[in-house]
Amino acid sequence: MISMADDNDVAEFGIGRSISVMEQCFIERCHGTLESPPRLHAGLTDGQIVFTVGGSIMQHVAGFRVYTTFPHDQQMTAVYDSASGHLDGVVEGSLLGAYRTASIGALSIKYMSNSNAESLGIIGSGVQAFHQVMAALNVRNFSAIYSHSRNQNHLHTFADKLRSYAHVPVYEMESAEEVAAISDVIITATRSGSPLFSPEKIRKGTHLVAVGRKSVGNSEIDPAVAELCTVLATDSPAQLEDYDPPHIMAGKKITDLSEIICGKRPGRISPEDVTMFLSVGLSGTEVMLAKAILDRKVKL
Q1: Taking Cα atoms as reference points, which of 114, 180, 118, 115 lies closest to residue 147?
Q2: What is the pTM of this model?
Q3: For residue range 29-58, what is the model confidence (pLDDT) as tens digits?
Q4: How far lies 206's CA from each of 50, 133, 275, in Å?
Q5: Half-sphere exposure of 128 (CA within 13 A, CB side)
Q6: Domain map of the chain by residue range?
Q7: For 190-207, how does the pLDDT look when each residue is reduced to its tens digit (9 = 90+)?
Q8: CATH, range 114-278
Q9: How far apart are CA 255 and CA 4, in angstroms?
Q10: What CATH code would you report for 3-97+283-299?
């Protein structure tokens, strides 16, 4: 029997469980049992169909997530038993991908930010920005959230939504630079093709989570931020080097987040370090999250 799940099941699973699944994925990656090749692009007349493929050797799980660049993007993630070839189930919807990305961002905060970080800055007001904040609140006891969006109407709506879910004060800031100057952890999750703030605004001890655009000539992050960082990390160095156009940090010394989570590399050296996580997408993680969601639904 093939199990089916959707966004409602993902929401019921919860962001806390999602973070735990992602943490296990990175431990597997560190031990060489998570399969995560770069994503595959199929170009068509009306856009692209993109596949992220992978799974766990140890658990005999394999599968793929597929999404498109079409105007209406309906996504799905298929999970197989790699030992038998049996299709175990399918998760339909985009929330799984949002949870996966937000959970990985939260893991970078858990392992790379200062443990006493109090202020969380969020630049962006979309779906991913919201889930990044919700995931971050699961790994640090932030006492304040500072938010900014270029669209003031979106900012007000976004901040009100955060207030209804987050039990800490949410402040609406007039500029991204104000957010950068006051935050211990900064999350950027925008569609901006130009830097949101100057490197000089970042204070000592800050951890950055860069989720949005990061290609040469089309980036929300100033490449000069790298000069401030003692540790640059990503979820997939291979995917980062596979960017076309190139990633703004291509060729730099980048640490695999899995090595930080496993304790092979430090997430930071001192409390005053500036650190940055470059989210590019680690294939296979969506499949493992889908597997956990389907398994839980079967047991309920």
Answers
A1: 180
A2: 0.97
A3: 999 999 999 889 999 999 999 999 999 999
A4: 34, 16, 7
A5: 21
A6: 3-97+283-299, 114-278
A7: 999 999 999 999 999 999
A8: 3.40.50.720
A9: 36
A10: 3.30.1780.10
